[in-house]
Design goal:
By secondary structure, the chain is an alpha+beta fold. Helix content is 63%, strand content 7%.
Length: 783
């Protein structure tokens, strides 16, 4: 068999093959270094880490957090039919004291707020939080007093501490590391679990808040690769053995893949990257792309050429596949690198990480893999027949079929592509665009306990928390005029039933007034506020919790924590817009606020940034990826028609994938927005190899001969590579992370659709182009 190849490139690879032992030894050392680095890649799977560090809202939130250092907030919801009974309140008091005694944990509940003996409510709360106060005895008289206190105000309901069928314990965790957080959560769980036993005082103990969600996400991220990567590896080894029926070939591919993936993952330790909610795609993408490249190379290698020696044949194979493999890996790598345009930090990081890993894959494919092939003496076709011996006969029948049904095949693909575009962008007045995932709990498995508990809490309380940062001239934050303005702002915000709570420096005053007068409303007359201001300053000296709402160093900042039902306001940004409008309205009506700057910050702001960035990330990254691949085809094939024809299968697969998402009720989220770039970057490999060998065939014959040559040489590797891609990404269906599971299913569907288009629409489109150029049909003579 004649094997077209550059003689200069072949000589280079001949030297590579002669240095095979040195190359293998070098990769052994590099692989060990990669494994060491992979063990030291940190985890960062929290939702707030999804926003880019240089984002203006992220910078403002960090500045706010430095000024108002605060722990992580959570809530224990204790379900009971009679929350204000002696039994329930006694259990609440014991649990609050036990949890509050844990290191780095503050606990506050109904029983810590009520002065059952002497002293102020906040003093009792503070002593409970530091764990030094003994549990108070709850008898019938005490329970009656607590009932009167709890039912005389809405403050407790707003704080989530009392409900019709539950009691709550507000938790604040000051745990600087994930390990300390997990230890604290485990201790809290251990203290609360006995109370929900069949004979316990509570029917259920629910855990609500970001500490539990972040802990679950980190565990799920850790187990994701541990679960599906071994399964994919087993499938991959079985597939390679079935395809090539050689243990030596299997060993060469598996050793190359192991080295490349270890180096790609370990690279993160040098670059300072971390495991995130989407980082599991990095080793998977590198593995499937590398495997596909190895399949392309080895499928050509087993076809013995007319080279005088096996080593020269091997060098000519590498020279023949160098251009298409390099072009496809380069295009894929740059396509993933295009994700750096995203403002979603893990997406940007994953793109650069994957691109770097693909660079390592390219090096390994043309150095380590041929070295191992040579050292292991992997067999050729004559020595060990691979699977698919029926394939040449199939191609002889298939090429005329695509010529005969060229118009129906191309038309069908175009119609499905249009339907996919409609599924993504919508049809005005008929179909809405593909929805965006606006709920942070979408990243947690619905079956997870933390998701069930949070959903249950969400039914009666708001989960969205926004911080309104009020910046005043230095020294004026605690003037009577500014505090009265804050009270008016609080009333304006709470006037909307969708707002469930507003905490501010005035919260301590509201509690104190309720204890003294039975009313939790502060006076609106300016004359009353000098005395209230003096009272508040006294509280700030004794109550650490109140000091968390005022910059006591410069008296130039105040903080309002606003909790509400975010979805009730509408789409992403709606609740934030309501807060900003309300502040501007109060500021306009009150001259005292003229010099006050208000900005909404916090984790809810960052979570909304993620949602609002989904579509721009999808559009920008896909446009850059498509542009890069278009330029690659321009350089490799230098044919306008080839550039357009080659992208048909990939574009069809991507658009049809959105049709699958619409049919399956899958929304755009932090993982599914990667569908376009991932599918385009992976499937264009097939078209590069197809057209490279199509041009080889065109050099010796017309369309029919060129298609036969391209399908015979590249058809089987394309099918094999697609099976590998499908298996790899379908393994993500085993992930506990819903976005990753959805991404795996949709991307696997897209790869199969691209394979179908490679064998139908692509040759059919080439037949249409050939007819337009008046080339002869199959089996006909010109004329």
């Amino acid at each position: 068999m004649y094997l077209p190849a550059s003689e200069a490139v072949a000589r280079v690879f001949l030297r590579v093959l002669r240095a095979r032992r040195a190359i293998a030894a070098a990769f052994v050392l590099l692989t060990l270094a990669g494994i060491f680095g992979a063990w030291h890649v940190p985890n960062d799977a929290s939702i707030e880490s999804l926003v880019a560090a240089n984002d203006p809202d992220a910078r403002a939130t960090r500045a706010f957090a430095k000024l108002f250092p605060d722990g992580e907030h959570a809530l224990l919801e204790l379900d009971t039919p009679d929350p204000l009974s002696v039994r329930s309140l006694s259990a609440l008091e014991r649990l609050t004291a036990k949890v509050g005694a844990l290191p780095r944990v503050q606990a506050e509940s109904l029983t810590t707020l009520v002065p059952l003996g002497t002293g102020q409510a906040r003093a009792g709360a503070a002593s409970s939080r530091d764990g030094r106060a003994a549990p108070q005895t709850i008898d019938a008289a005490t329970a009656a007093k607590l009932r009167r206190f709890a039912t005389g105000t809405t403050l407790l309901r707003r704080e989530g501490l009392v409900g019709d069928h539950f009691l709550g314990i507000a938790l604040t965790l000051h745990t600087p590391t994930p390990h300390e957080r997990d230890s604290a959560l485990a201790a809290i769980d251990a203290a609360a679990a006995p109370l929900a036993a069949p004979s316990g005082p509570f029917t259920a103990v629910r855990r609500v808040g970001s500490p539990w969600i972040d802990a679950w996400l980190e565990r799920a991220t850790d187990t994701a690769q541990q679960r599906f990567m071994p399964l994919f590896g087993l499938f991959l080894m079985a597939l390679i053995f079935v395809l090539y029926r050689s243990w030596r070939t299997l060993a060469a591919m598996v050793l190359t893949l192991g080295s490349v993936v270890a180096l790609a993952v370990g690279l993160a330790a040098l670059a300072g990257w971390a495991h995130t909610i989407v980082s599991a795609l990095v080793p998977l993408t590198v593995m499937v792309t590398t495997t596909a490249t190895l399949v392309y190379i080895h499928s050509r290698y087993i076809e013995r050429s007319d080279a005088p020696t096996l080593l020269e044949h091997h060098a000519r194979v590498l020279a023949n596949k160098f251009l298409p493999c390099t072009a496809s890996i380069f295009a894929t790598a740059v396509g993933f690198a295009a994700l750096c345009v995203s403002d979603i930090e893990p997406i940007r990081q994953m793109g650069l990480w994957t691109a770097s890993g693909l660079g390592i894959a390219w090096i390994g494919s043309f150095t380590l893999f041929p070295a191992l092939e040579s050292l292991l003496n992997t067999p050729l076709r004559a020595e060990r027949a691979p699977a698919g011996r029926w394939f040449p006969g199939f191609i002889d029948r298939w090429v005329p079929f695509t010529e005969r049904y060229r118009w129906p095949l191309v038309t069908g693909v175009l119609l499905l592509s249009l339907c996919g575009a409609a599924a993504l962008f919508g049809v005005p007045g008929v179909l809405s665009p593909l929805p965006l995932e606006t709920d942070s709990l979408a990243y947690v498995s619905p079956s997870a306990r933390v998701a069930r508990d949070t959903r249950a809490f969400e039914r009666h309380s708001g989960l969205a928390v926004f911080e309104l940062w009020l910046q005043t001239p230095p020294g004026e934050a605690l003037t009577p005029g500014h505090l009265l303005a804050v009270e008016r702002l609080t009333r304006a915000l709470e006037a909307d039933s969708r707002i469930t709570a507003v905490d501010s420096p005035l919260s301590a005053l509201r509690w104190a007034r309720y204890l003294e007068t039975g009313s939790d409303r502060l006076p609106s007359q300016p004359a009353a506020w000098p005395a209230l201001t003096a009272e508040l300053k006294e509280m700030l000296r004794t109550d650490p919790q109140s000091r968390g709402y005022v910059d006591t160093a410069t008296l130039s900042s105040l903080r309002l924590s606003i909790r509400g039902r975010g979805t009730a306001f509408g789409g992403p940004g709606a609740m934030r817009a309501y807060i900003e409008r309300t502040f501007q309205a109060v500021k306009k009506a009150d001259p005292v606020l003229r010099d006050v700057h208000g900005r909404v910050v916090g984790q809810s702001v960052l979570a909304e940034k993620i949602t609002l960035e989904l579509v721009p990330t999808l559009v920008r990254s896909f446009a850059l990826t498509a542009g890069v691949i278009f330029c690659v085809f321009l350089l490799v094939f230098r044919s306008a028609s080839a550039r357009l024809m080659a992208m048909i299968p990939s574009l069809f697969a991507i658009l049809a994938a959105f049709l699958v998402m619409r049919a399956g009720g899958i929304a755009l989220n932090v993982a599914t927005i990667l569908i376009g770039s991932t599918v385009l970057g992976a499937t264009e490999n097939d078209q590069v190899h197809f057209f490279y060998h199509y041009q080889e065939g065109r050099a010796e014959g017309a369309t029919a001969a060129a298609l036969r040559h391209a399908l015979l040489v590249a058809g089987r590797p394309i099918a094999f590579a697609t099976l590998i891609n499908v298996a790899g990404f379908l393994a993500l269906a085993l992930s506990d992370l819903p976005p990753m599971r959805q991404f795996g299913i949709v991307s696997a569907s897209a790869f199969l659709l691209a394979l179908a288009a490679d064998f139908t629409a692509l040759p059919a489109a080439l037949w249409i182009l050939a007819r337009a150029r008046r080339e002869p049909a199959v089996g006909r003579e010109p004329g």
